[in-house]
Each structure stands twice: as C-alpha cells, then as structure tokens.
Amino acid sequence: MTGLGRTTAVALVGLTGHVVEVEAHLAASVPGFTLVGLPDASLAESRDRVRAAVTSSGVAWPQRRITVNLSPAALPKAGAGFDLAVAVATLAGAGVCSPRSVGAATHLGELGLDGRLRPVRGVLPAVAASVAAGRHRVVVPYGNLAEARLVPGAEVVGAVTLRDVLRRHGADLPEDADVVPVGAEAVGPAPVACSDLADVVGQEDARRALEVAAAGGHHLLMVGPPGTGKTMLASRLPGLLPDLDEAAAVEVTAVHSVSGTFRPADGLVRRPPFEDPHHTATPAAVVGGGSGLPRPGAASRAHRGVLFLDEAPEFSPRVLQTLRQPLEQGELVIHRAAGAARFPARFQLVLAANPCPCGKGAGKGTECSCTSLERRRYFSRLSGPLLDRVDVQVDVLPVTRVHRAGQEVGESTAVVAARVRAARDRARQRLAGTPWSSNAEVPGAWLRRQAAVPVGVLDRALDRGVLSLRGVDRVLRVAWTLADLAERERPGAEEVGQALLLRTRGQVGA
Question: For residue 333, with 0-12 CB atoms within 10 Å meaning exposed, 13-18 middle and 19 or more buried, which class applies?
Fold first, then answer.
C-alpha cells in the first residue's frame, strides 16, 4: 500500500523566504528513509531526529520505504526547521493524521528526541513569506509563538510537542501530560538603556558633529587621543535617533530573528540597534558569512542603527574594505558555493581612531614619540576610498581643567534628540515622493539639480584636489542637514562652509 502526505515549510536565503513543498511518499518495500531536494548536513540528519521524536510521541514508525522530497529541488535548504514538516507529512502519508489538514498548513520547527518542539531562527520572515504565498495557517513551536504573531494576517498555532500537532490534525492520541516548552524565554541580550549625552564633559565641536550625524543619517569619524570621550559620544548616538517606523521595525526585527538575537517578549525592535564589534572580529563576524548559507553579521544587525568601530585602524583591512559595499548600497550580498544571500545593511558607521600609534599626536603633538612615517602608516590603514564615504569628520581634543571645572552641564539627550527629530521631519517632508527619507540617502545627481545652493567654495576645493566629486556630493548632503537643523528652506554659504569644515576636520579654509 502506497501513501502520500504533503505540507509546506519555508527555506530562508538571507531574509528572503521561499515556500517549500514537503512530500512524503511511503511505498510497500524494504523499510528505509531517503531525504532529497538539496538538503544540507543538518537537514539530512533530520531523518534520525524525526524517527526518534515520532516513537517518543507514542506513534509507531511506518515500516515502509519512505522518500521525502523538498521542492523546488534546486533551492538550497539548511537547518533543522524542516523537522516538523517532514514528520507530519510522513505521518499523514501513513494515515496517522488527516492529509487534508496537514496540507493546509505550513509547519516550522525543530524536533527534539523526546518529541518536544524546539524554537528556530528566522520565524518572523518565514511566517511572512508563508502569508505572502497565501498560506495563512502556520504551526510553530511554542517558543516562537510570540514572534510569529507579529506577522499581520497569520493564523498562528503554537505547539509544545509533536503529539500536540498530530492531535490538532485529527490523530487519535491521548492528551499530553504537563510538558515544559523548550525555549519559551527570550534568548537575546536584554536591551540596555542609552546613556545621557549630558554626561559628556566639554567637546562642543564633537557634540555638534554627533548631532549633525544623527539629524542627517551621516557617517562619522572621530580622531583624538585616548580618554577624550570618543567612545562615550558614539555610545550616545542611538539615543539621538528617532524610533523606527513600522516598515523599518519589521525589517530590523527580521534580521535579528535570523541572527538569533531577537527577544519576542519585547515585540518589534522599535529603537535603532547599536553594534560595536571588537577590532579582532573577522570579516564574517562583521559583514556576515559562515559555512553553508550565510548568516548576518554585525553590519546587518546594525541595520537602521549604528555600527561603531572603536580603534578603527586596528581592524583588519579586509574588514574595513568589505564595508564599502553597504556604505554605498545599503545592503550586503554574500556569495557562497551554496548560493547568494542578501541582507539589509543601511547603518550609520561611526569610526573612532587615535591620531597615531602612541595616541599623543593630537594638536601640536609635542609629546608624541611617533615618527612621521609611523603616523602616516598608522592612519593610512583607514583607506582613502573608505574615508571618502564618511560625511562628518571631527577632531576630539583633550578636555582641559577649565572645561572640567567651569563648564556647565551640556544639553541632555532628550533636548538634542528633539532637534534631530524635527530636522528629520523637515527632510522627510522635502523628500516626499522620492525613495529617500534622510539626507544621507539622497544621490548626488538629485542634489546637483537643486538650485540656489552656493557651491563656489566646493568647486575650488574640487579643483585643488581637496575633495573628490563624491566628496562634493557628501558636503552638500551635510549642508542640507545643517539647514534642516537651522530651520532654513535651503542651505546658504554658511551651511556649505560649515559642511566643508566638518568634512575635512577643519584642515581646509573657505
């Protein structure tokens, strides 16, 4: 006697979900289990997990020749999230549960050997893909229930065990005893409250640069000796940024879901994320990768937020150069033998660097013990093409005794964030009807078409080789941000001059 069971699962390639039909064919032949359809190693091992989970659930394993096909066969499939779909399709073909009921739902989840369902990564984009394909009923592990319910239009069923799923599909099985769900608690790190900008002593120029970067979404470089507050300033940038809108929140949440750092109990990620990898991080850790299908790295986890590289010249040149693609395109495309994956990566890059290896070369540099060659070699680790993509560059000089003793407390994060929010609203209104929402995203061609913006000083800087054509466009972006902060209709000569100084660390005159 031959049986056939069908259901669906979802394969994730990057953040893109592909609905996969899972077919189980049971033939009256020598017992065996074959899984086809381009599975990876962890998925190929599902035959052992499924068999153990079925027998632990009190269901007899079908003594037939079982062939499970994952279609489309040309699509790479990875991970243990197909376990539940393989199990219910097989048991539907064996007549244990209703083939019609099983075929009407999408099943996601990993099976433990005791029959319990274990949460899997990427449930949010997977459920969204299933709903987009017209399959609204989705069965997920109980630990993924809160996350799956964030998808509008999804009819989500949370299950603790395989027996629970089979009973919902019409199997005649006894009720489960009290079973503790696996992974019901959030596994991501707890959110950390942003520190207040008022904690930073002095540094008026650096604080202003931070506000401009936040208002326009610009990349930022801070250069100064150790102990001047570069890390403090960078860690306070997320607090200046406005909350994510609905579309951005869903996108950011999907990235963190695939990364395994999402806390479902907190709902959608509404605040801009902050990532600060150590300078020993590998390219795969920063931009994503890994064996098999790639996983997102720190650059993608910082999507719509801040990626901070402290001691930037100490990072591997390979890491720094791989950031050039997302800085221009806002996404990462990672190619591997198993396929290519796309991850969003529209982040604000913040670089902090010492002026030289000994760190004392700021200002007059009288205490610096480095040779001129050592200084050039150290700072040249930040390549010209990378720095050419950084809009705001500022020197952070040591705080003097006068600042520490007599300086009034600086403006708080709330005060500056209100100005940033107002500036972003003005930019969003001006860019209504375009694909862009912040000044940092606007292409140079659009900027150059805007009339009545004085660019004479930029033309002279371009002729002298101080700026590249890309640099001119980025100075114009910063000038528009300065105009938004000043509540002006368009930038004038003052804003263009200030933007040029911010671009060149004050090393060029108007």
Answer: middle
pTM of structure:
0.88
For the chain, the domains span 3-168, 197-441
Contacts of 361 (CB under 8 A, 6+ apart): 225, 354, 355, 368, 370, 375
Q: What's the topology of domain 197-441? A: Rossmann fold (3.40.50)
Cα–Cα distance measured from residue 248 to residue 269, given in angstroms and rounded to the nearest whole number: 9
- Among 1.20.1250.20, 2.40.30.170, 3.40.50.261, 3.30.230.10, name the CATH number for the domain at 3-168: 3.30.230.10
Q: Hey, CA dihedral for 446, 448, 451, 457, is it positive or negative?
A: positive
Cα 334 versus chain centre, distance = 14
The answer to whether the CB of 78 falls within 8 A of the CB of 42 is: yes
What is the greatest pairwise CA distance in the chain?
90
Q: Which two tokens stand for residue 233?
A: 């300033």
Q: What is the pLDDT of residue 451?
A: 59
Q: What is the distance between the alpha carbons of residues 275 and 252, in angstroms, rounded to a whole number? A: 13
Q: Which two tokens stand for residue 103?
A: 């075929």
Please spell the DSSP secondary structure of 172-231, one letter per residue: --PPP---PPTT-S--SPPP-PPPPGGGS-S-HHHHHHHHHHHHHT--EEEE--TTSSHH
Torsion of CA 420, 425, 426, 428, to 10 degrees: 120
pLDDT of residue 433: 87
Let me know how long the chain is.
510
Burial of 374 (0-12, 13-18, 19+ CB in 10 A): middle
Note whether 101 and 64 are within 8 A (CB).
no
Averages of pLDDT over runs of 10 residues in the chain (510 residues) are 87 92 94 90 88 94 94 88 96 94 96 94 95 96 92 94 94 81 58 75 89 95 90 93 93 92 86 94 88 84 95 92 89 79 93 88 74 86 89 87 63 93 94 90 80 76 83 90 92 89 69
Cα angle 337-343-348, degrees, rounded to a multiple of 5: 135
Cα–Cα–Cα angle for 312, 314, 318, nearest 5°?
85
In 3-state terms, the chain is what percent helix, strand and coil (to 5)? 40, 15, 45
> Smallest Cα–Cα separation from 378: which of 349, 357, 347?
357
Residue 121 near residue 186, CB atoms below 8 Å: no
